[in-house]
């Protein structure tokens, strides 16, 4: 777990989630966001007279469109930082993107693995005997072959 202290918030990063702990004029609180639910990160370095910010985008989040300092200060998905904190937040961004890529690889690998597994045989013994009877009726199996296979399936 790593913590990155910003202007009005602290960003806590783990391999599976981020937590934004904020203490603002509107109150104190925290918000947890799962890494796997992140769809993007908005990152702006601080300017000469302005703060930088890191903003997290995920389904259901609302990006602040104006990006004014007062709007960003109210956004619970954003952590603002100054020029002295910039390098730390750049590291935080890289770390989170690495975790996002790792989550994506794991999801892809598990999806890829599930597609290569053999499907479970859901046929019943009765279905198999019906298929064998059809093969016998078509002349593909003899009566003896049909009877032997039927006994094998029934465990007789």
From TrEMBL:
Pfam families in alphabetical order: DUF4429 (PF14472), SHOCT (PF09851)
InterPro entries: DUF4429, SHOCT
All copies of domain DUF4429, residue ranges: 25-94
Superkingdom to which the source organism belongs: Bacteria
Limits of the SHOCT domain: 127-154
Protein name according to UniProt: DUF4429 domain-containing protein
């Amino acid at each position: 777990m790593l913590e990155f202290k910003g202007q009005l918030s602290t960003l806590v990063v783990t391999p599976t989630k981020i937590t934004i702990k904020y203490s603002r004029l509107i109150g104190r609180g925290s918000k947890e966001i799962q890494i796997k639910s992140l769809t993007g990160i908005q990152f702006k370095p601080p300017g000469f007279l302005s703060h930088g910010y890191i903003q997290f985008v995920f389904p259901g989040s609302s990006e602040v469109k104006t990006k004014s300092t007062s709007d960003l200060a109210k956004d619970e998905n954003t952590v603002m930082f100054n020029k002295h904190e910039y390098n730390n937040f750049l590291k935080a961004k890289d770390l989170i993107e690495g975790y996002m890529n790792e989550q994506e690889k794991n999801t892809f690998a598990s999806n890829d693995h599930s597609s290569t597994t053999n499907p479970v045989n859901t046929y019943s013994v009765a279905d198999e005997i019906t298929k064998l009877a059809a093969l016998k009726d078509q002349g593909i199996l003899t009566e003896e072959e049909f009877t032997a296979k039927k006994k094998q399936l029934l465990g007789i």
